[in-house]
Amino acid sequence: MKDPADTAYPPALVFFLLLSLLSSGCTRNSGGSRIIEDTRADRDGLTRILLYYDMEGLSGQDIITSIDFPRPEYFRARELLTADVNAVIEGLFAGGADSVFVVDAHGSFNPEPDILLEKMDRRARMLFKKERFQPYVDLLTENEYDGIVAVGMHSRTGGGGFGEHTVNLGTEWILNGMSINESEIIAYSWGRERVPLIFVSGDDKLAAQLSWMTWLEYVTVKEAVNINTAVLRPVDEVHAEMTAAARRAVEHIGTMKSAALTGPVTASLRVQPPADLSLLAGVPGIDYHDETVTFTADDFGAAYDGIRAFMRVAQAGYINIAAELFLGQGQDAFMQFKDAIFDEWQKAALEKSETPSQEQGASTGSERRYFGST
Q1: Residue-range definition of the domain harbouring residue 110
Q2: Domain of 209: which CATH number?
Q3: Residues 154, 250: one domain?
Q4: pLDDT single digits (tens) 141-198
Q5: Of 241, 259, 277, which marks where a domain is finished?
Q6: Does a structural domain hold residue 245?
Q7: Same-domain pairing of 155 and 230
Q8: What are the start-end ranges of the E strands in the chain?
Q9: Cβ-proximal residues to 94 (8 Å cutoff; 6+ apart), any chain
């Protein structure tokens, strides 16, 4: 049998095959780690948009602690958040969106959404569930969205942006050799369904990090000087740009691209204070060195789950800070901290030894609602 490599193809056929590849709407970067594709075909003639919001990349905001409930400055930031989101919603509907769904992706520890629901544009719908969920990955089968929008976003850890971090404080996500931000996590997650990220707002450092998404409508709301200092732009000017950019994003949604990671995915979690992975040092089978743990996953979803698991280990650094804080407040405060740990230990043991009650699991009449990263 003749080796296909020895086959001589006519020049015209070679040109046709090359042209087909170039026009297929699918390109890979030189490392083969990222794939950019045309979006999936519209299935019902309706345009549904999913809007994520965070708080570090808000317009009019230059106080880093304003992201943290229940500090006094947080309540002013809620007003800023609501105004930014409403400016974008206005543009989305002006561009032809049939529906807009909003999800909380911040996580301020406020049991209610960070946005002021009573002031949010009533044309949009706030998403919530009766159980905890991870908004970046757990909504792919909830609805058939046509485009994803992210408002108030921020730079990755180490990226020089205002309020920079990746999901948790002090953690850096590295996938297929690329240090990524949360906007890219959203893009890669939805890229599995070939749904495009079409609009993002945040600071100038994030803008640079997302410049490879040449189709993206991006609005720079401020210039980051460092993690806690920013030069603000006039809010009215920013809101006008947000509305215009969101409108363009929907009007041109058919030309947008989706982005995904090719598998297997090499995933790393690198930490800096307050996060700490030193508990992994010396654990057999764990690739850990230089404050970084690395593993290989079959695909993006498995890589995401693995990094989130290691992030729980990294939170040991937070616990160490808490212990030192209590110890510094005197023996009584430290003993309260230790007693709380002992109480949980004993409570869990006693619950396991008791006969399950028939009443267990009964509804209390006031079910908790979860809005995402609360």
Answers
A1: 34-259
A2: 3.40.50.10780
A3: yes
A4: 777 899 999 999 999 999 999 999 999 999 999 999 999 999 999 999 999 999 999 9
A5: 259
A6: yes
A7: yes
A8: 27-28, 34-38, 48-53, 99-104, 125-126, 147-151, 171-175, 178-180, 197-203, 217-226, 229-232, 257-261, 265-271, 287-289, 292-297
A9: 243, 246, 247, 250
* Omega prior to 356 cis, within 30 of 0: no
Owner of token pair 């609602």:
369
- Rounded Cα distance, 303 and 309, in Å: 10
Q: Give the tokens for residue 77.
A: 């930031």
DSSP character at residue 168: B
The sign of the torsion formed by the CA atoms of 19, 24, 25, 27 equals: negative
Query: What pLDDT digit, counting tens, does each position of 92-113 carry?
Result: 999 999 999 999 999 888 989 9
The CA distance from 109 to 114, in Å, is 9
End-to-end CA gap in the chain: 63
Is 316 buried (19+), middle (13-18) or exposed (0-12) by CB count in 10 A?
middle
> For 2-54, how does the pLDDT look when each residue is reduced to its tens digit (9 = 90+)?
333 333 434 343 333 333 333 334 444 433 489 999 998 887 889 999 999 99
Prior bond to 113 cis, omega within 30?
no
Residue 27 lies in a domain: no
Residue 123, CB-side half-sphere exposure with 13 Å CA sphere:
18
pLDDT in tens, 317-341: 888 888 888 778 888 887 887 788 8
The one-letter code for the residue type at 112 is E
Give the predicted TM-score (pTM) of the model: 0.84
**Rounded to whole angstroms, how far apart are CA atoms 92 and 247?**
5
